[in-house]
Design brief:
The chain is built from 15 helices and two strands. The protein is mainly alpha-helical. The chain has one domain.
Length: 367
């Protein structure tokens, strides 16, 4: 694909911020709203803001893969674009490896490194999986020549994970046993990962999950390549992305009865379903924000999206809820049953103002 893009894609920043919104307070806000009202839609949405216990899919299960998909969608702009400008591939190798290492370190810090309790520490992490999956997808992009080769790599990852999860026997359980105790993911995690596993017998950010998640990151990279392609009209890009998304959603749902959609094991069917929704969301955000130029409404999310890692680490380190309670406790006391809703709204506002200050002063944590 011959590509050249001068204008920044605001839709990627907005979609990333929309995704992060649910992590940094949107979830607890709507859960509390579901508890204090008799609104059926609020109660339904509140139930969607919890992970499924194992097999199945809730909206909350989309947050992590959507972030990885967006990270992948930025690869053609961050890496391919630089290759086209003559930046040495070795320099880009260092950039990708450095990003992966920093995110792994951030993930370990997030999990409680400073407690210094290394024997019981969890070394796998959300940020670590993002970094390592980005490393895999980034290297594939750097060492392939075109869209078709990258698509073959994606198909290989998805089929390879499906084959391993369904055909490789686990001692004591056999092959294709997709349970927290009997899956190949659990077996590999127990024998490779040091420290504590998040799920006891498995880790949702474990070894095979990282490889599988590289698939959805690469899926994002393919979508990003379409967005950079100047030979395609904007509306054709929207149609291609949305159509591919619908196909993947149908495929994931259709295969679920025989090969379950499981986020914690990052099954290929989960990649299909989550990746399909990611493609549809990207097409929608791109259409509204970058094609129709309707951007004002997205400013709130873009401020969050421009410093996503900052706020992810920030909510772990800074007690934004305490600030909201300190400032709004008196006002919230007059809200009756809506008191927690007011306080969570305040928390989100404090977080956003913190990010807005960084945004206005052009302070961004680049990893």
């Amino acid at each position: 694909m011959k590509t050249s893009v001068k204008e920044r894609l605001f839709s990627l920043d907005a979609l990333r911020g929309f995704d992060m919104f649910w992590i940094v307070g949107g979830d607890v806000l709507f859960r509390s709203l579901g508890k204090v009202t008799d609104w059926q839609w609020a109660d339904w949405w509140a139930n969607q803001l919890y992970h499924v216990e194992w097999a199945g899919f809730h909206a909350y299960d989309l947050i992590f893969p959507l972030f990885m998909f967006i990270a992948g969608a930025a690869i053609p702009f961050a890496l391919t674009g630089k290759l086209e400008k003559g930046v040495p591939k070795s320099e880009l190798h260092r950039k990708v490896v450095k990003r992966a290492v920093i995110l792994v370190i951030f993930g370990i810090i997030y999990n409680g490194f400073f407690n210094l309790n290394f024997s019981d520490m969890r070394f796998a992490s959300v940020l670590g999986q993002i970094g390592l999956a980005y490393l895999i997808a980034g290297m594939i992009v750097l060492h392939t020549k075109n869209f078709r080769q990258r698509l073959f790599w994606l198909i290989g990852i998805l089929l390879g994970i499906a084959a391993v999860q369904n055909l490789v026997p686990v001692p004591g359980y056999g092959a294709g046993v997709l349970t927290p105790e009997g899956s190949i993911n659990s077996y590999v995690d127990q024998h490779i990962l040091p420290g504590t596993l998040y799920g006891g017998t498995f880790d949702p950010e474990g070894t095979l999950s990282i490889i599988s998640a590289a698939g959805i990151t690469l899926m994002g990279a393919l979508a990003g390549a379409y967005l950079r392609d100047k030979q395609l009209t904007q509306y054709r890009k929207v149609v291609y992305l949305a159509s591919a998304g619908v196909v993947l959603i149908v495929l994931g749902a259709a295969l679920h009865p025989v090969y379950p959609v499981i986020k914690a094991a990052w099954t290929t069917t989960f990649n299909f379903l989550a990746g399909g929704i990611c493609l549809v969301l990207l097409a929608l955000f791109y259409l509204i924000i970058d094609v129709w130029k309707a951007r004002r409404w997205s400013y709130f999310f873009r401020v969050i999206g421009m410093n996503s890692i900052t706020i992810y680490m920030g909510v772990r380190i800074i007690d934004f809820k305490h600030t909201s309670d300190f400032v709004l406790n008196g006002i919230a006391s007059y809200a009756g049953n809506f008191e927690p809703v007011v306080l969570f709204l305040g928390m989100i506002l404090v977080e956003w103002l913190f990010l807005y200050y960084l945004y206005k002063n052009r302070i961004f944590l680049r990893v």
